[in-house]
Amino acid sequence: MPRKLLLILMVLMFSMAFLTACGCGDDDDDDDDSTTDDDDDDDDDDDDDDDAAGCVDEDGDGYGENCDAGKDCNDADDGAYQILTGYLDLDNDGFPGTEVGVCAGDTLPADYAAEATDCDDEDPMTNPLGTELPDDGIDQDCADGDLTASDDNGVFVDGDGGSNANPGTMAEPVKTVQKGVDLAEAGDAKNVYIAMDDYQEDVMVEGAALFGGYDASDWSRDIEGNETSIE
């Protein structure tokens, strides 16, 4: 073989070996097997190009469509990316009670509470500091349901059939409101339940709560139907 031809073949073989070894002409700089912009979002980063191609994260917080971290509830704000459960105070009584979902970061915004403390967020008179009214079907203080009249929590007054010699129970009510107040303030029961009547007396009250509108026959309450007055 002529020496010149042999020299040319040797040069070609050397060049091919060099190109194979150095990977010259390969646009895959990060060796992730993807060489085009359509397949690789960053050719200086050897991330998983299959995931990177599908993840759409406009604000760079790691959340977005088809991203490993999950969808982004606001892809224009890198501080808001997930839905958290919070509670608002819609009746402005100082106690939150309405559950809402809010797009946020790791913590709830300042206007949202993490827990509900109001059992009725549509009534500003109903909250943990509300005044409980008995036998109206409403739990005004958000504690243990509606207060119902019973011998355990009150003294009973019946101006028509009671006697001040009685203990003030449902079965044996006292006759005057003042006697009922005195018994309530002297004992553990602070509520005075008063049957319908017109009580002609001056009453001094320091710590008891008075509730009228009761029917002494069964101690049911009807504020409008069972008129109770103290004069």
Structural write-up:
The chain is of the alpha/beta class and 231 residues long. The protein folds into two domains: 57-147, no CATH class; 154-230, 3 Solenoid (Pectate Lyase C-like). It has helices at 3-22, 49-54, 177-186; strands at residues 82-88, 98-104, 154-157, 191-195, 197-199, 209-215, 220-221, 228-230. The strands form three sheets. It has a four-stranded mixed beta sheet with strand order 3-4-6-7, with helices on one face. Strands 1-2 form a two-stranded antiparallel ribbon. A hairpin with a 4-residue loop joins strand 6 (209-215) and strand 7. The longest helix is centred in the first third of the chain and has 20 residues, at 3-22.
Which terms summarize this structure?
231 residues, alpha/beta, Pectate Lyase C-like, 2 domains, 4-stranded mixed β-sheet
Give the SSE map.
Layout: H1 3-22, H2 49-54, E1 82-88, E2 98-104, E3 154-157, H3 177-186, E4 191-195, E5 197-199, E6 209-215, E7 220-221, E8 228-230
Parallel strand pairs: 3-4, 4-6, 5-8
Antiparallel strand pairs: 1-2, 6-7
Shape: rod-shaped
Distance between the termini: 137 Å
Strand content: 15-25%
The radius of gyration over CA amounts to 40 Å
